[in-house]
Amino acid sequence: MTFLPTLKNENLFGKTVLVRVDLNVPLHNGAVTDTTRFLAIKETVTYLLENQAKVLLLSHFGRPQADNDSSRWDLSHSLKNLATPLEEILGCSVQFVNHFTGPAVNQALAALPPQTVLLLENIRFAPGEEANQPAFAAQLAENADLYVNEAFSCSHRAHASIEAITHYLPSVAGFHFEKEVTYLEKCLSHPHHPLVAIIGGSKVSTKLELLTNLCQKVDTLIIGGAMANTFLAAQGIDIGDSLFEPNLLPIARDILETSQATIFLPEDVITAIDLNDTQGFVQPIHSVSAGCKIFDIGPHTIQKIISILGTAQTIVWNGPLGAFEYALFEQGTVAIAKALSDCTQQGILTVAGGGDTISALKMAGVTDRLSYVSTAGGAFLEWLEGKELPGIKALLKNTKNLEFSDYSL
């Protein structure tokens, strides 16, 4: 079990706390269309304010061109646009300052009213951020007494506001960060068996390390989505005109032959000529018609997967099992999402993550009915791949925390 330094160990009264959050949220016509990441930081921000701390929020937004000259910043990436919607979610006043270091931040802090959060400008405007520059991290630290990482979703990146900053301030995990680590460890590092993983998506190439790692850790690996086509083709099965990766056939065969896990692949599928067809056809996997493409798992496969899930003690899911964005091909992914909800009610630990997976859970109306849904994206995937995340490593190595004796989650 990972032992992280936590907020609960800190005397916060009168302290200025720099909180790295992830406010990289989707916008449509200037409006935030998904407030999940705002909600994820609320507990930590509320706790800090209740304990009389001054709160600085630091985040990135998009991928703007970094420049030391602020006059050249593309302000369409400014975090100023998020202050009002953030205020509504956090339930406190949010002020914005158009920088992240120096006199502008000092002046805004000095004038900051009680129970008010100060939102700093997009950290990716600074060249030192993605370069993980120690000098820049030291400048960030000048305005704070404590650093809180509440951006697990960014913690697979060794950036200044994630890694280097911990060399200059006492550093702890936020409450949501703790929760991410706790549940991910429960589902993979210290799971109750049988452990079942469901991995979907379009390409084996994007999840090769993930599949390789899971094959050595889980009891059953269920593979769906277009990536299953590559594994089916590797077995010599005719998949019609379906999308697959010919160059990865040898690797797929190797995974199938060396996996310590039982690998389950679709046994029947929904096919069509293309995604715009108005009718799909259920076909056994050994009888896919010439000219057809696989776009979803079939009803027999759905029932087999549900049966497997019912025998599990721990389930982790990443990636849709079909082209669920199209109504004709959403049945498999939605059915499995609902099955995970049912498993959760039966006491099975269920953890899901990834953008498309979260969208599928929302489509099925079960987002809040799993044990845990990770908002982390890339960090979630890298954890599942067995990689060490710079954000976690930095908190564990932070020598400024050594005065504390217990960081147990």
What do these coordinates show?
- This protein has 14 helices and 17 strands.
- With 409 residues, the chain is an alpha/beta fold.
- The protein has 2 domains: 7-179, Rossmann fold; 191-384, Phosphoglycerate kinase, N-terminal domain (Rossmann fold), CATH 3.40.50.
- The longest helix is centred in the first third of the chain and has 15 residues, at 36-50.
- Helix 3 (103-110) links the parallel strand 5 (93-96) and strand 6 (116-119).
- Strands 5-6-4-1-7-8 form a 6-stranded parallel β-sheet. A 6-stranded parallel β-sheet has the order 11-10-9-15-16-17, sandwiched between helices. Strands 13-12-14 form a 3-stranded antiparallel β-sheet.
Question: What secondary-structure arrangement, pairings included, does this model have?
Answer:
Blueprint: E1 16-20, E2 27-28, E3 31-32, H1 36-50, E4 54-58, H2 83-90, E5 93-96, H3 103-110, E6 116-119, H4 127-130, H5 134-141, E7 146-149, E8 171-173, H6 175-189, E9 195-199, H7 208-214, E10 220-223, H8 227-234, H9 249-258, E11 262-264, E12 268-272, E13 281-284, E14 293-297, H10 299-309, E15 314-318, H11 331-345, E16 349-353, H12 355-364, E17 372-374, H13 378-384, H14 390-397
Parallel strand pairs: 1-4, 1-7, 4-6, 5-6, 7-8, 9-10, 9-15, 10-11, 15-16, 16-17
Antiparallel strand pairs: 2-3, 12-13, 12-14
